[in-house]
Design goal:
The chain has 462 residues and is mostly beta strands. The protein has four helices and 31 strands. The strands form six sheets. Strands 6, 8, 9, 10, 11, 12, 13, 14, 15 and 25 form a ten-stranded antiparallel β-sheet that branches. InterPro entries: Peptidase_S1_PA, Peptidase_S1_PA_chymotrypsin.
Length: 462
Amino acid sequence: MPDERTHARAQIRGVKETAEADLLAKKNVIGVDIADKVTDGKNTGQLSIVVFVEDKQPTSKLSAADRVPKEIDGVPTDVQQMTVELQGPSMQLVDDVTPQVDTTTYAVLHGGISMGPLRSVYLTPPDVTSAGYYIFAGTLGAMVRDRGNGATMALTNFHVACVNSTWSVGDRMVQPSLLDGGSSSNQFGSLTRATLSDDVDGSVVTVDTGRSTTPSVQDIGDVAGHTAATVGAAVRKRGRTTELTYGTVISTDFTVTINYGSDVGSRTLHHQIRVQTDTSRSARFSDHGDSGSVVMDNNRMVVGLLFAGSSDGQWTFANPIQSVLDELNVDLMVAPVVTRPIVSCLNTRLVVCNITRPVACLFTRSAGCNLTRTASCLVTRAVACNVTRATWCPVVTRTAVTCSVFTRAGCDIPIPDPGPIEGGQSEDGHGYGATADVPEEYWAGYLAALEEINELDGPDEA
């Protein structure tokens, strides 16, 4: 049961957090999480403390200090292999620029699109294969607002906008990135704040005055708000490289150590969101250049800020969005809520849309011929609506019926056919315009009621 697993996860969490520092200190260990134990490639369904290593080796080849115990305080452990890498920024030597996937210049800034620094950064091995000046591309995640001065800002990762420790407040950003064909003419804002902490890899860029923005994400829609990620939730993201992709939250307890390069070094981030790719809809959830994307649930609520993933594309990692917003001192910009008038279908007052006054059926009278008189034929343009008055009052055209009269048998008098008119059905089953056994009192009362409503309400709107 989900409740039982939630309770079990909460019990394991304390044990995991107490033990993870020792586990991360072991050889090859890069991550610790809470997830189902996998044996011989099969999911056992048993929650355990999962220890991720870069290179899984037989216990016999490890020193006693580097071995992961089979259980910790009664909680089973599992060892799984994974290679972790930052999902951006994509980079190339300045002299070897080839525009990549999303090369669009957007007149209105919004989430899910290419961005990057205007500056190039000089890198050397082992960070790159050959020394030189490199340019970078990442993703603008979403629009945010400064809690202090209300300025409009663009949210992305530290390693997208800052790249490394050589960054400065005021560094200019471009959309699209230089790698995607952008240039100095595509500048949109200045780097204002950044953080690389135990929980967050983030930065914000103040958008230039006069530049248009909208609180939406490309291919997903308006941002509705933010919420905490929950295990099992379906999520999606739109990034500069893999564009719109889909996945499922597997954990919110992931701890991972990542190498940010020789200039920054290895950093360990705690309480991260781990997303599994929905391979039925996406080849992988993220790749290089997707860093900075926001991860959203099916209600268009932001749950995280994407920053890294596994090299095989199976896993993607994101900072919890509340931590991101708090550390950067910003709030998500959300689309305004459009309020619509409430139409009540429980109104006890009858409102009739576009009533045409009753007209009498035509017939020929002749001396000596006894005719059965028909009731007046109600011609209506719409059904009576039991709703609050509104310009969109539902209109239904009733099935056409033919107005007719009856004559006494043997009476040979021509009676013209008035042709079909619009009619309907009353609540007691009588057809409007029908003549069979309908007492005149019925119509008299009905018409009187209509007259009263018309006098009280005035002309109705269609």
